[in-house]
Amino acid sequence: TEHLLQVENLRVHFKTYGGEVQAVRGVTFHVDRGETLAVVGESGCGKSVTAQAIMGLIPNPPGRIVDGQIRFDGKKITGMTKKELLSLRGSEIGMIFQDPMTALNPTMKVGSQIVEGFVRTHNVSKEEARKKAMEMLRLVGIPDPEKRVEQYPHEFSGGMRQRVVIAIALANNPKLVIADEPTTALDVTIQAQILDLLRELQEKQQLSIVMITHDLGVVAEIAHRAVVMYAGIVVETGKVDDIFANPKHPYTWGLMRSLPRIDGVEKERLVPIEGTPPDLFHPPKGCPFAPRCQFAMEICEQQMPDASDFGNSHQAACWLHDSRAPKLEELVAAG
Ligand code: SF4
Ligand code: MG
C-alpha cells in the first residue's frame, strides 16, 4: 500500500545575491498513516525548507524545486497550482509553526480563527461554527471554552496560544500535520505539555505528524521514526529506538553527545559539535560532514558515501560502513 507522504529525491535551490544556495540536495523519505516522523538537524540543514516544500510554501522566486517529487495521499503535490495547494493546506494538511503569535491574527477572536477554514469548506450556521470552535478548544485542553472563544490571542499565555494554533491546524480533520519547531519558543514545562498533547491527539485521531526539530529530546519524546539531515542531505534514518540504541553516523553521534540529560547534570555534558556545516553555494562532492568528522578518510572528501542498511529500515550514509573501510576500533586506536 502507498505511504501517506512520499518525498523523493527532493532538490530545492534558492537564488541569492551571492549565488544559488542548494538548500535541499536529493532528500527521500516517507511517512505512513498514524505515525510521527521527526526530521532532525541543525539550522540550515534543509529541514524547514523540506517542510515548506511539502506544504507548497517555497517562495518562488527566490526558491525553486529543481528536482524530485512529493506525493501525498495519492496526489502529486509538486506540480499543483497555487489554488490546489491552498485547499490542500486548508483541509488535508495542517501546520504548526514555532511562534504561535505570528500564526495568529491579533485582531480576530480566537474562536473565529479556529473555525475560519472549517467555515470556508463546510456549509455551517454561526451557532454550529461556534460549537465547533468550543469543541476544538476542549480537544486541545483549553478550559472554559465558552469564554475563551470570545477572547483575542493576547489574552492567552504562550502555551495556550500554541494550543490554539494546534486547534486551528486540526479543525478540518487533516491527515497530516507539519510541525516546525512547535515547542522551541516555549519554556520547558510547557514544552512537555504541548508534546504530550500532540502525542495524545496523534493517537486519538490517527494523525500523521512530520516534526521538524533540532532537538533529539523532542525526537525521543514523540517520534516513531527519524530522518537526520545534514547539509541538505539525509545522513541517517530509521526507527527512533534503533537510532538511539545504535546510531550509525558520526554526525548523529555528535548530536547524541550534545543531548542534555534529564537528571539535572546536563550543563557539563553538553558537547556541541565543533566546526560549522559546509557552504551550500558550493556543496562538497564528498561527504559534507568530512571537515568536522574525526573519522574522515581520504575517500570521504572524494565521493559521497552510499547508504548502508542495518536492517529494520535503519540506514546511514557513511564510508565507515563500507565493507572495505578499516574497522572503527583501528581508526580510534590510530587517533
Ligand atoms: Fe566521517 Fe567519512 Fe563517515 Fe563522512 S563518510 S561521516 S567523513 S567517516
Ligand atoms: Mg528552521
Automatic annotation (TrEMBL):
Gene3D superfamilies: P-loop containing nucleotide triphosphate hydrolases (3.40.50.300). It is a peripheral membrane protein. Its main location: membrane. Residues 5-256 form the ABC transporter domain. Pfam families: ABC_tran, oligo_HPY. The keyword RNA-binding does not apply. GO terms for molecular function: ATP binding. Keywords: ATP-binding, Cell membrane, Membrane, Nucleotide-binding, Transport. Transmembrane segments: none annotated. The keyword Mitochondrion does not apply. CDD domains: ABC_NikE_OppD_transporters. It is found in: Cell membrane. InterPro entries: AAA+_ATPase, ABC_Ni/Peptide_Import, ABC_transporter-like_ATP-bd, ABC_transporter-like_CS, Oligopep_ABC_C, P-loop_NTPase. PANTHER family: DIPEPTIDE TRANSPORT ATP-BINDING PROTEIN DPPD, OLIGOPEPTIDE TRANSPORT ATP-BINDING PROTEIN APPD. Belongs to the ABC transporter superfamily. This is Peptide ABC transporter ATP-binding protein.
